[in-house]
Structure formats: structure tokens, C-alpha cells
């Protein structure tokens, strides 16, 4: 409660009173609402805004009334871990009072989660798509590095004969591929930001996009690419130059 009080069994007159949320008070333009009369009913209190719809929607005006005779649903708070036992007891009570009706129930948290079923599907598909894209990219990069090192075998052998160490050869070969990877990342960053920002615009309540989300993703991408490249270049750098030059 933000102002006033909630309904109470101790006051039978509460049946003629209402409680609004903050959005309703703002829409009505009422100052100091507690005690004011709206449509013949006294405002008993004001509750803080809460999301009773999905986060795609703004919190709309809402009012609460005490009308036991018109209630079509009963909400029960169940202690965690006692769901099956409690529902079994509720089913017996329900059949005792409504034997001709089916006992139909649902869990409120599941009802709220169903509002984001589309987002969950997108999340799962995105994870699989991202994993597949990383795998295909690494295989392609691995094959390209293997082909290049094989093609430049003579150059690598001559460099090693002239005094280049393993690290020098690894850096030489890795540098060219990493330039391509970094260029691709720089192109992908603004595109991904635009796509994510546009998707978040579908929600009234949403997170703020932080720069480190994208820098972190870029860093992981570069690290995976670097490990893929280095795993092959180390092999080429460790080859015996005499054997390489002999075969050439």
C-alpha cells in the first residue's frame, strides 16, 4: 500500500469502497485520493503500480473492489514443496461444494511465464544458431589456416633457417587472420547493437544496453578465433625446416 489501508473483515462498510493503483489515480488527476468519492464509492487506499500484464505493456489503471458474490476464481497461496498435497486437499473441498463442475486450476507463475513464450523460443533458437555459427566459423577458419600454412611452408622453413623462432612464425601467421577477424567484429558490433535495441523497443520495461555486453562478446569471439588459428600455426611453426625445404 502506498496510501490508506487495504480491505478488512472488521469493516463491513469496505464493500462500498475501492482501492486504486497509482496509474488510476494519475489518470483521474486526484490529489490526496484517500477518502475521495469516485462513482459513489469512497477511495480506501492506493497501491503502488505493479505489472499484472506482460512487460510489453505499460501499467494501466486498475481498481480493486470487494464483491464476493461475483468472484469466479479463488487464489490460494501454497507453501513451496507442498503443491501436490495441497491441490489434492483443494480438489476434495471443491468437489464437496461443486460436485458437478470440473476442478480446473493453474499456477500463477506459469501463467505469467506463458506471456513470454515467444521470447523463450527466440532465446533457445538463438543459442543453437549461435553455437552452430561458431562451430562452422571455427571449422572454416581452421581449414583456411591449414591451407595457408601448407602453401607457405617454404617461407616458414626459410624464416626458421634464418633465425626466426616458433613465436615469430606464430605471430606472423596469426596476425593476418586476426586482422580479418577483428574487421568482421567491428562490422558486427553496430549491426548487433541495432538489432538488439530494436527488439528491446517492443518492451515498455527493459534493460539498458551496456557497452561491455558487446565488448565482452567481441572479446570471446576474438579469443575463440585466436585459439583456432594458434592451434594450427603452432603445428606449422614446430615443423623441421630441413624437411619442409627438402619437400619443396
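-> sequence recovered:
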Amino acid at each position: 500500500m502506498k496510501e490508506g489501508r487495504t480491505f478488512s473483515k472488521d469493516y463491513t462498510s469496505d464493500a462500498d469502497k475501492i482501492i486504486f493503483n497509482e496509474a488510476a489515480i494519475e489518470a483521474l488527476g486526484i490529489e490526496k485520493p484517500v477518502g475521495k468519492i469516485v462513482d459513489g464509492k469512497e477511495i480506501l487506499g492506493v497501491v503502488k503500480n505493479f505489472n499484472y500484464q506482460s512487460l510489453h505493456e505499460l501499467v494501466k489503471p486498475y481498481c480493486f473492489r470487494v464483491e464476493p458474490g461475483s468472484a469466479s476464481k479463488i487464489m490460494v497461496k501454497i507453501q513451496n514443496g507442498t503443491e501436490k498435497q495441497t491441490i489434492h486437499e483443494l480438489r476434495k473441498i471443491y468437489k464437496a461444494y461443486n460436485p458437478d463442475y470440473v476442478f480446473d486450476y493453474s499456477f500463477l507463475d506459469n501463467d505469467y511465464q506463458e506471456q513470454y513464450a515467444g521470447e523463450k523460443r527466440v532465446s533457445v533458437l538463438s543459442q543453437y544458431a549461435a553455437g552452430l555459427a561458431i562451430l562452422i566459423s571455427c571449422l572454416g577458419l581452421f581449414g583456411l589456416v591449414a591451407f595457408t600454412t601448407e602453401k607457405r611452408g617454404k617461407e616458414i622453413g626459410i624464416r626458421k633457417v634464418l633465425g626466426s623462432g616458433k613465436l615469430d612464425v606464430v605471430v606472423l601467421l596469426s596476425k593476418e587472420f586476426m586482422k580479418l577477424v577483428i574487421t568482421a567484429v567491428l562490422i558486427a558490433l553496430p549491426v548487433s547493437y541495432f538489432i538488439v535495441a530494436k527488439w528491446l523497443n517492443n518492451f515498455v520495461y527493459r534493460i539498458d544496453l551496456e557497452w561491455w555486453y558487446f565488448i565482452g562478446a567481441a572479446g570471446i569471439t576474438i579469443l575463440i578465433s585466436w585459439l583456432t588459428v594458434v592451434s594450427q600455426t603452432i603445428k606449422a611453426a614446430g615443423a623441421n625446416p630441413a624437411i619442409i625445404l627438402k619437400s619443396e
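Residues 46 and 131 are 49 Å apart (CA to CA).
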